[in-house]
Amino acid sequence: FTPFDHTLRLTTATIAHIQLILGLCLYGTSPITQYFLAHFKEAIHDRPIRFFGMEHASVMILAIVLITLGSIKTKRQTDDTARFKTMTIWFAVALFAILTSIPWAFSPLVSRPHFRFW
């Protein structure tokens, strides 16, 4: 486990936490989530609104928690093989969670453009 591997682990966790802060700022200012929170009983039954108001944020926060736990557990391992295995498993599960919760442009239920030119 080289210093580069340690830096990679630390950089991944740091970028994930910065992304969490940016995401929470956007969550608080988004008109979609404001509508979701104001009209919860109706919005919970509308798939695209529910996705952005609840599902996306919940899964992304879970992914950040997984990255954080994986980073901590990797740091506490004493064997290099165990460190690599721990980091791979935790980060891969977090990556899977992230990829499943991105509103991809090809998704039939919650698609939206990645870049909007307004």
Explain what the structure shows.
This protein is an all-alpha fold and 118 residues long. Helices cover 76% and strands 0% of the residues. The chain is built from five helices and no strands. It has helices at residues 3-29, 31-38, 40-43, 47-76, 80-100. The protein is elongated and about 50 Å long. The mean pLDDT is 86.
Q: How are the SSEs ordered, and which strands pair?
A:
Layout: H1 3-29, H2 31-38, H3 40-43, H4 47-76, H5 80-100
Helix pairs in contact: 1-4, 2-4, 4-5
Helix share, percent: over 70%
Radius of gyration: 17 Å
Give the beta-strand count: 0
Q: Which sheet architecture does the biggest sheet show?
A: none
Mean pLDDT: 86
Q: Could you list the spans in which at least 5 consecutive residues all have pLDDT below 50?
A: none
Q: What structural category arises from helix and sheet content? A: mainly alpha
Principal-axis shape: elongated
Strand content: under 5%
Number of discrete helical segments? 5
* Helix-strand topology string: HHHHH
In whole angstroms, the N-to-C terminal distance is 47 Å
Spell out the key features of this protein.
about 75% helix, 5 helices, mainly alpha, elongated, about 120 residues
